[in-house]
Amino acid sequence: MEKVHFTEEKATMLATLYGRALDSREADPVLGDHAADEAVRQIDYDFAKLGITRDSAVSVVLRAKPIDEWAADYLRQHPDALVLHLGCGMDTRFQRLAPPETVHWYDVDYPEVVELREKLYAPAPNHTNIGTSVTDFGWLDQVPSDRPALIVAEGLTMYLTPEDGTELIRRLVAKFPSGELICDVFSKLGIKAQKLNTPVRRAKATLRWGIDDPHELERYGLDLMSSLDASHWSTPDVMARLRPFTRFQLRMLKYFPALARMANIVRYRF
Ligand SMILES: C[S@@+](CC[C@H](N)C(=O)[O-])C[C@H]1O[C@@H](n2cnc3c(N)ncnc32)[C@H](O)[C@@H]1O
């Protein structure tokens, strides 16, 4: 068992890991991420204290699912791609997508997080972990710049300052010949309402960067391909497994666009 002492934004990745583990224990899981469950069983931590329940785990996996699908789509079209998985936490997206060996995958997060990944996840020839803050931009020099790039950042942008986030995008767009950025963004209301976000509050993390209109990022060299607000994430199968009140809350998103737009999954090309 690995004992861990993560705080603030680093602790939030334990909540999302636990969400995927809970989903994998369902008879009809959304992601079926059994590697997440194995990791949870090897970490000595009171996961329940982060406030993720069977119902709230659903929002974790419903966010991950379209990101997996868009990423798989890019990799089918670009089997020579390089993947930067930023703010990866303990996510096992590399295992879920199982890219061909011609794809090189970089998982990037703070050094303490990467250290835990290295203890729990097996190495692979086409996989590299980089332990750094994504905003200490020197890490980019470790990555070749001559291949199409898929950049995935799930649950990361909202923790960055707008200045750091936009500078990161500028540098990524300038570095590669072409690529896609797939990430999620919170609206300014999502940032204002952060005290209502139980795992964020319990981890004592701070959300900083709100983006109301995904087109805003186009001024940094991106071209928006798709955007899915939270009212589009759930499916009838998933709804059926939820408690009536949670189901009601998710249904309400269709009628209150400002609430649905608090969280958006976005896909850009550059
Ligand atoms: C909500 S968790 C998401 C983790 C993972 N993407 C997932 O979906 O399970 C946020 C992650 O972003 C990482 N993070 C936040 N700010 C970062 C930064 N400046 N540099 C590197 N990682 C960062 C945290 O350490 C944490 O692992």
UniProtKB/TrEMBL annotation:
Domain of life the protein comes from: Bacteria
A molecular function GO annotation: methyltransferase activity
Annotated EC: 2.1.1.-
InterPro entries: Ppm1/Ppm2/Tcmp (IPR007213), SAM-dependent_MTases_sf (IPR029063), TcmP-like (IPR016874)
One Pfam family hit: LCM
Enzyme's top EC category: transferase
Coiled-coil stretches noted in the UniProt entry, renumbered to this chain: none
This protein's UniProt keywords: Methyltransferase, Transferase
GO biological process: methylation
PANTHER family for this protein: S-ADENOSYL-L-METHIONINE-DEPENDENT METHYLTRANSFERASE YKTD-RELATED, S-ADENOSYL-L-METHIONINE-DEPENDENT METHYLTRANSFERASES SUPERFAMILY PROTEIN
Protein's name according to its UniProt entry: Class I SAM-dependent methyltransferase
Organism of provenance: Amycolatopsis mongoliensis
Lineage: Bacteria, Bacillati, Actinomycetota, Actinomycetes, Pseudonocardiales
